[in-house]
């Protein structure tokens, strides 16, 4: 079956033919219908640091996967052939798709039943794939880690693939949501989802008493500025990895008793919650659907910041 292989940093993906998998005891095989592209994939291609979590290469990249169960191994009762499912990339399997085991840039995928989240009727495979990471990560940060409550004043930094979902979740859950987004071309789209206000720089929020700010950009100064904008006892949740270091001012932290929390991935339940919002139409993320052969070119576009929202590859009908 066709696949895109990652060999090493600074090397392009290579088109390959690999054997079709069969499920072992307790395993499930999916026919992949859609697979999302992510800035993390660009990180793998560009930064040697990622090699530490990719011990076995070549590997099929792609950690946002949705498809149909096509085979189950001995002892599997949780799902059945024909079930429409998404794969939680931080689920029950001891390895993560696209990093520790072959991911979604191919035609079939092996995983454990505990990785799988059943798709609601009417949800497309493309949105289901997006929901497994962009949706899950965004929701987990603002709801599970951030603990958003109705009526809170909430800031979202960055309106990219994650921030657009997180901001809309906040609106749907009854918060007063403000967005900081440097790209003014996105401001009309920001306003369309029901936020209270949009600014170019979170530094403009200093002293405004936010209950919660989620930094989906993570460019160092964005997190620093967030800590200056929350109320006493407020929370900053860091998701983005635009830079791998940031500075916090001691006075802000101590006098304000500010909490700064990291958020990594999420759970199958986070995905299930996001799937309900996607299926109902309450969240309508901007998504570009491309073909299997287009995956390398669109990873280049992600690198060059030429894509708005998320990119999902259509693998099969």
TrEMBL record:
Domain Enoyl reductase (ER): 8-313
Signal sequence interval, chain numbering: none
Essential cofactor(s): Zn(2+)
Enzyme class: oxidoreductase
Record's keyword annotation contains Lipid metabolism: no
E.C. number(s) listed in UniProt: 1.1.1.1
InterPro entries: ADH-like_C, ADH-like_N, ADH_Zn_CS, ER, GroES-like_sf, NAD(P)-bd_dom_sf
A Pfam family per the record: ADH_zinc_N
PROSITE patterns hit by this protein: ADH_ZINC
Alphabetized SMART domains for the sequence: PKS_ER
Keyword entries, A-Z: Metal-binding, Oxidoreductase, Zinc
GO molecular function list: alcohol dehydrogenase (NAD+) activity; zinc ion binding
Catalysis: reaction(s): a secondary alcohol + NAD(+) = a ketone + NADH + H(+); a primary alcohol + NAD(+) = an aldehyde + NADH + H(+)
Domain of life: Bacteria
Membership in a protein family: Belongs to the zinc-containing alcohol dehydrogenase family.
Name of this protein: alcohol dehydrogenase
Species of the source: Actinotalea fermentans
């Amino acid at each position: 079956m066709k696949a895109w292989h990652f060999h090493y940093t600074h090397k392009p993906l290579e088109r390959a033919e690999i054997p079709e998998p069969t499920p072992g005891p307790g395993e499930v095989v999916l026919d992949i219908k859609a697979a999302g592209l992510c800035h993390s994939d660009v990180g793998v291609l560009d930064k040697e640091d990622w090699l530490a979590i990719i011990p076995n290469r070549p590997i099929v990249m792609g950690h946002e996967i949705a498809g149909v169960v096509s085979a189950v191994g001995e002892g599997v009762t949780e799902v059945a052939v024909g079930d429409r499912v998404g794969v939680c990339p931080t689920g029950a399997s001891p390895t993560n798709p696209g990093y520790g085991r072959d991911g979604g840039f191919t035609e079939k995928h092996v995983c454990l039943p505990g990785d799988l989240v059943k798709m609601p009727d009417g949800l497309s495979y493309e949105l289901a794939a997006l929901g497994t990471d962009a949706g899950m990560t965004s929701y987990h940060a603002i709801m599970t880690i951030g603990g958003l409550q109705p009526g809170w004043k909430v800031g979202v930094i960055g309106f990219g693939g994650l921030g657009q979902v997180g901001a809309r979740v906040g609106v749907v859950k009854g918060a007063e949501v403000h967005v900081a987004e440097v790209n003014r071309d996105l401001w009309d789209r920001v306003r369309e989802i029901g936020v209270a206000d949009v600014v170019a720089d979170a530094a403009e929020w200093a002293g405004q008493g936010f209950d919660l700010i989620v930094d989906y950009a993570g460019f160092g100064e964005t997190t620093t500025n967030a800590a200056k904008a929350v109320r006493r006892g407020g929370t900053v949740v860091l998701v983005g990895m635009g830079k791998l270091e940031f500075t916090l001012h001691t006075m802000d932290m101590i006098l304000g008793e500010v909490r700064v929390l990291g958020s990594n991935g999420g759970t199958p339940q986070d995905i299930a919650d996001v799937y309900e919002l996607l299926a109902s139409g309450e969240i309508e993320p901007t998504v570009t659907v491309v073909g299997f052969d287009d995956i390398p070119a669109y990873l280049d576009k992600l690198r060059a910041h030429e894509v708005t929202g998320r990119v999902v590859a259509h693998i099969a009908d």
